[in-house]
Amino acid sequence: MTAEPDGPQDRLRRFATIWSRSVYQVTSTSLTRPEFEEQLLPLAGRLSEALRARTFDAEEGRAVGAALVAMHCTDPEALSRSLDCVDAYLVLYCGEDGPQEDLRNRASRLQHAMAAGYAGALRERTLAEQEAIAWAAQSARSTVAEALHDSEARFRAVFEGAAIGIAISDLDGNILQFNGALQRMFGGSEQTVRSRKVTDWTHPDDAPQVWKLYEELVRGEREHYHVEKAFYRPDGTVLWTNLTVSLLRDADGRPQYQLALMEDTTERRLLNLRLRYEATHDALTGLPNRTLFFERLEKAVTAGEGQRFGLCYLDLDGFKTINDSLGHAAGDRLLVEVADRLQSCATAPGEMVARLGGDEFVALTTGPDTEAEVDELAARIMHALVAPVSVDGRELTVRGSIGIVEGPAGERGPAEVLRSADITMYRAKSAGGNRFELADPEADLKAITRHGLTTALPAALDRSEFFIEYQPLVNLGDGSVRGAEALVRWLHPQHGVLGPDRFIPLAEHTGLIVPLGRWVLEQSVRQARDWQERYGGHPAGGPLRINVNLSPCQLTHPGLVQDTVDILERAGLEPEVLCLEVTESALIGADDDLLKPLRRLAEMGVDIALDDFGTGYSNLANLRRLPVSILKLDRSFTQGMQQFPADPVDLKIVEGIVSLAHSLNLAVTVEGVETGAQAEQLRILGCDTAQGWYYARPGPPDRLHDLVLADATG
Q1: How far is it, in rounded angstroms, from Cα 362 to Cα 354?
Q2: CA–CA separation, 262 vs 127, rounded Å?
Q3: What is the rounded distance in angstroms from the CA atom of residue 537 to the CA atom of residue 573?
Q4: Do residues 288 and 281 lie in contact, with contact meaning Cβ atoms separated by under 8 Å?
Q5: Rounded to an integer, what distance in angstroms lies between the CA atom of residue 681 and that of residue 633?
């Protein structure tokens, strides 16, 4: 497989090619596919510019949707495939620097705008056809006296051959004539359609003005009207239409008939509803997601005077243990059961339950008297979690910690309310869990400050409170252990074991990251020497390698190269034993001064790995100037391989990255491997090494020793 295009125009052309190949098959056009692609290319450019614009402009998406109709892409499948292409490939080929979530959200909004523009253009086109048909019908009626047979033939051809539904009825609502398209829309027999009067076709979703407009028309006070209207089919399903009704008068101008033109918009409406639902609901549990919850919360906290709100923030106790011991599939089934129970707790008006992500849920209640209601809601939730959940034949006890925030509307914003609830939930969890706590402003203030951890960091290094765990790096070809990644932990006297996400940002902010990083490097290299002295290397030959993470602050420290050389020389190890991992985001836009120490280390023989590759939206062309020898693929690209069948989009992305890396003589390491099927798929795709819980969780150095011995004896 060849490498992906380098330049923006090449990537834009690639996106247009994929788009044209997908849509061309369902488009009625005399153009060849390359000619069709040339027409799509400027539309792709508009989408790319809208994706990267400083200010989002939905009009660009609507214009692209309308342009598809102008290109005769009027088959509903053409819109669906276009939206799928935008969802799967727009950010991949046209995204530049910026947070992935923001670009994905903007791409989703562009899809909505495209669907709206497409629907509007298709509606205008249909209305033009309707007007033409109406004119033909009136023309046929006015010329009956002059040439009855000829006009009847012309009218019948238009009437029967039209793609939209047409019906003629008298002023009492009796249906006199209708064409085959209308009969097919309703899915009934001719007698079924003819047996009902116009006034019988009511639906609960009818807008209030629909029948008022109808009465005005039959009285001759209105010539026509246009509405969106739903109808029940004989089988109970709902038909949504764009309905235009016109009044037909006799030669003396008296009202005589009414002509109805119907466009079936059911599929379009279902598409819009599906897009809206997917954007606002959690895929696993079906509950409202963070987006929809924030919409509701914002309305609740900005409601009128006299209104109050109550929020319960729930986090499951010990859920990580279930994931670790039983696997994520069992954890997902547990989350689905918990979601069902929570849904049953919030059924009153003004109440809702949503999933924010992971094992975090929220329940919201609104109204004039939420002080008592929110306590009752929290009690119902705690009671709902009492009964064990059966997963894979095991009875799992479910417990939860809830933080409660209650108050009047208009005093706090949604972000502040949610932060207070989150802090309160962690306070309940710290108190032992399986309880709920009320928000305390003083406790919130203490929790949101990082002063305690920040001031404790220097002393923690002096008191040797930091320790290192090692996660094996496994060769995907033969399954042998090739080394390990060093992962620093802080054994805090009060807070217990803290992961790097809790203290590394603080260390970077205070500058302590330089001595801490030097300590981690020294301890890791010393451990690599101990492994080498203990059993030589791995069964495939060569020394076991050690991977150590470098923070962006360390890259700018002038002593990085010399410190690394000194540490390796004191340990008596060759530079080839060491691999330094640098996050992709740290090297985005890096100038030569920043890259110079990395180049010096690489020239010495130290491997440089580009960590979290694929999350920084860096230009792939920059890989050629970076002194890296390894790409560490972010786990987000391989999560879709944990299921069977694997996500085909993820497979294509990983396959393309591996091909690109190998063409640049770069090795590929994959993080977050959790299943055997995932590991096998990555091996087939050509990845070189992997790490993850499928092989081993991070642990003490002796655990790696056991794995290496197992390789040697296996």
Answers
A1: 5
A2: 10
A3: 13
A4: yes
A5: 14
CA 390/CA 388 separation, integer angstroms: 7
How many Cα atoms occupy the beta-carbon half-sphere of 250 within 13 Å? 6
Backbone angles phi, psi at 686, to 5 degrees: 100, 10
**What type of residue sits at position 583?**
T
The tokens describing 375, both together, are 């306590």
Q: What residues form DSSP beta bridges with 253?
A: none
Output the six-digit token pair for 278. 């997917």
Residue 681, both tokens: 């798929």
Q: State how far the Cα of 604 lies from the Cα of 438, in Å rounded to an integer.
A: 58
What's residue 1's pLDDT?
Answer: 42
For residue 473, give both structure tokens: 């790096």
Sign of CA dihedral 455, 459, 465, 466: positive
What count of other Cβ atoms lies within 10 Å of the Cβ of residue 282?
Answer: 20
Indicate the SS3 state at residue 687.
Answer: coil
Confirm if 684 and 668 have CB atoms less than 8 A apart.
Answer: no
Q: How many CB atoms lie within 10 A of CB 489?
A: 17
**Helix extents (H) in 232-327:** 266-280, 290-301, 319-326
CB atoms within 10 A of CB 633: 26
Residues 6+ apart with CB under 8 A from 321: none
Residues comprising the chain, all counted = 714
With b for 16 or more beta-carbon neighbours within 10 A and e for fewer, the 233-263 pattern comes to eeeeeebbbbbbbbbbeeeeeebebbbbbbb
For residues 444 and 434, the answer to whether their CB atoms sit within 8 Å is no
Collect contacts of 525-528 with beta carbons under 8 A, ≥24 apart: 525/567, 525/568, 525/571, 525/573, 525/577, 525/578, 526/571, 527/468, 527/470, 527/486, 527/701, 528/483, 528/571, 528/573, 528/577, 528/578
105, two tokens: 């959200």
Tokens 């995932």 locate to 678
CB 578 within 8 A of CB 598: no
Q: Please, which residues bridge with residue 404 across strands?
A: 312, 438
Amino acid (one-letter) located at 660:
L
The position carrying tokens 């119907």 is 262
- Under 8 Å between Cβ of 60 and 46: yes
Mean pLDDT of 357-382: 91
**What does DSSP say about strands 481-492 and 545-550: parallel, antiparallel, or unpaired?**
parallel
Lowest mean pLDDT among 193-202, 212-221, 570-579: 193-202
Question: What is the greatest pairwise CA distance in the chain?
Answer: 110
Separation CA 436–CA 1 (nearest Å): 56
Amino acid at 330: A
Dump pLDDT digits (tens) for 19-74: 888 888 888 778 888 888 898 889 888 888 888 888 888 888 889 888 888 888 88
How far is 473 from 481, CA to CA, in rounded Å?
Answer: 6
